[in-house]
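Field guide to reading this record: the first block holds the primary sequence, the second block holds the structure written as discrete tokens, and the final block holds curator observations. Each block starts with its own label. This record concerns Polyketide synthase thioesterase domain-containing protein, catalogued under organism Streptomyces luteosporeus.

BLOCK 1 — SEQUENCE
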Amino acid sequence: MPSPTVWNVVLDAGADTDIVLAADFPVTGRNEGGFAELAPGLHLDCALWQTVAPVRNPETDALGEEYLEPWLSEVAASGRTVRAVLGYCAGSVFAGVLAQKIAERQGTAPLVVVFDPELVDVPTVHLQFGRVIGNMTTVLTPEEIAELSGTAEQLAAKPGIAPVDFAAGLYAAFRPIGTAALRRAGLDEDYAGELVTLVGSFMSYLATAAGLDPRPGWQRATVITSASERSGLNRMRTTPGIAPVEVADERRFEVEHRDLLRTPAVADAVAAVLAGRPEAGA
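BLOCK 2 — STRUCTURE
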């Protein structure tokens, strides 16, 4: 089979090996660790593939289970067995759903390991949009930051606004301001357009996750929990209105959310789970 196009091969172990899948939205320069940093500590004897998020516009594109189809189709076309599905933050939603669908196809359920899993809601999208803006302080003016932050606050305050509508509204506000700021910073039109489109794809990724139910997949999951109060199960357990999330096992580590995937002790614990030694861990 040719190299996958909607998965990034983090670790290649030959065409006949099993695959471990990882769901995340990695971007250059983010301060959170990624699966490329976790991979060496897993000591896998199989391939590790990471999601490549499809290019989507939350203002115009339909977002639902069809979002998953390119990922599922390429895994099915490989003919390889999925040994485990991993997920980080909002990617844990995709991990839970992908694991369920893959189990139906291949007849055996892959292991599921999720890192600070998030049920995506309006506050989640709001937080992540704030991080996007925070990463652009070198190109956005204080006035532009204030305008985008104010728009986000106004949208979030609308009674009953759905995450998909919230994400679309955020991107509609960001697109012209972000484009102008990047062009002002000296980027050519094409590259500025790519970066702005990336933000739209990230908003689409979050909005899609908000509409999926990962709980059946999470019931079999090992959850890796950080010490960050506003991340993962820590946040869900203290947020009114969120029903308890049932998981198979939980391992807690005294590290910040951003450091989960770059912490050796976490890699050791996950390696033990993937090797069938669930008693090993933190």
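BLOCK 3 — OBSERVATIONS
The domain at 7-120+212-274 is CATH 3.40.50.1820 (Rossmann fold).
The two ends are 38 Å apart (CA to CA).
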